[in-house]
C-alpha cells in the first residue's frame, strides 16, 4: 500500500453514504422528539 494513502479512510460508495445519511437523520429526529415529548411518549412511527 502506498505510504501517502495509508492514513486515508476508505471511500464509501453511494449506497453506504445514503445509509449513513439516513441513520443520522433518524437519530436527529428521535433525539428532538425525545427532548420535546419525552422518551416514553415517543413512538417508532413518529420517528420514522
Characterize the structure shown.
- The chain has one domain (14-47).
- It has two helices and no strands.
- The chain has helices at 14-37, 44-47.
- The longest helix has 24 residues, at 14-37.
- The chain is elongated.
- The model has no long low-confidence stretch (mean pLDDT 89).
Mean pLDDT, to the nearest integer, reads 89
What share of residues are in beta strands? under 5%
Helix content: 55-70%
Number of strands: 0
Could you outline the blueprint of secondary structure elements for this entry?
Layout lengths: L13 H24 L6 H4 L1
Brief account:
By secondary structure, the protein is an all-alpha fold. It has helices at residues 14-37, 44-47. It has one domain (14-47).
Which terms summarize this structure?
single chain, 58% helix, mainly alpha
